[in-house]
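Crash report, auto-generated. Payload:
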Amino acid sequence: MEASRVEKIAKNDLSDQLIRDCQVGDREAFHVLYDRFKRKVYSLALYMTGDADLAKDLTQEIFVKVFRDIRAFRFDSSFSSWLYRLSTNRCLNALRNRRSRREVAIDEVSGTSAEIAPDDPLQQQVTDSMRQAVSRAVLSLSPPLRAAVVLRYVEGLSYGEIAEALSCSEGTVASRLSRAHGLLERKLRSWRPLALGDQL
Amino acid sequence: MRFCFQIVGRLTAYCGGVLRPEEERWIAEHLRSCARCRAREERIRRQIDLLQTLPLREPPDRTWTSIEAELSKSDPFEAAMALPPGNQRRSTFGLIPRRLAITVVLVIFAVAVFAVARYGLRLGVQQWELNLASYLDLVDTVAAATADPKRNDFPAAPGFMDVTLADAKAALDFPVISPESLPGGYSLAAVRLYMRENVRALQLRYQNEEGALCLFQMPANVKPSLGNRESVQDTAGGVQCRRTRSQRCVAYRFTLGRTRYVLMVREMDMALTDRLIQELRAAYEKAAA
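Recovered output after restart:
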């Protein structure tokens, strides 16, 4: 991988040239693009579906589609917006088409915090417990509300970027987030963070 | 002074810092004076903090390998090289943009509908029309203006050129007849050839002491037209034909084998017409044999 590309990735800067390289079929550029966005796409799929296997399949499908359709990208919006729109639509379709809901493994979705506080088992347990509760609450939302929440708080998109990804207005995004918070409040009311030193 | 119901729906956006400064200001004012809304705001902020603890997750290591394998199946890299940029949708025809394909299909359909409406459904053979309506008008005009009807009463039809009989036969690809003489003392006086696009036709002018007649010949895929003039079904010389009258001329349209004929005479003389067409029929049969 070229050093300049690695630097750009490190700086969170995606150059137009990288996209153009992908558009002419540069495999190495595809790999760079994948590395740049793999966590965002996989996390979106994971928090949207609550299923690690399905999220992996969706990630694969999304990137294959991205690489096949990347010639259609015209630079009239940011690449990430284009990618998020494609990814969100694919996730929503998958949820629509999924007839029998698979068992959701919350611990797989929220992960463990061993990497955050490896030396403090109590803190780790608190964090894991909290993430599981939050993940469960998010998964209880309807897919459109869930998408808005995941894009806003996990992916860190602005209201405008979410509106573009969901093909709706910013007012709709605000309305969905507001409704989502109302519903999450009931779900998370019982969960109370433990202060350090409290007994589980 | 704002009420709580005006605030509640905006609290999430307020906490997200995406409101206009003016809105932000009056919500902040309300929050200073309303403990209930302050509690709501506090709960939303706590939720946001919790939601933001959800980490981005790493996909399994094998994911890229699976993607590469999938890409190699249909080799989109080569497809990406072949396709022009900017086309978002593609048809099942591959390289043709869907909109262009639809437009082409619609145009072809419209042309087909027009052609069927205009020319009828004639499969296999291209049909042409040789319009002799204006020629009949010309013949009438010339006859009316000429004191001596023996002179030039069947001039060359528009588009026809005087040629030798040998040149005409060499240029025509359908059976033609060219008797030197016809009943009534008519003898061949002029040979004219029409050649435009794919239409070929022959005009023969016969002359006797009293006047002239002319005979058009054309292949079966060329239909002679005499405009909107009324025509009647008739039989002359044992051949079915359509008879059309103009002011100073009578035209008989008939077919012998693969050749269509239009015989034009000055006067309607059934006996002479019978003999003329019989002679033409005999000449055709002889040529065909």
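Post-recovery validation: Chain B has three domains: 4-51, 73-119, 128-288.
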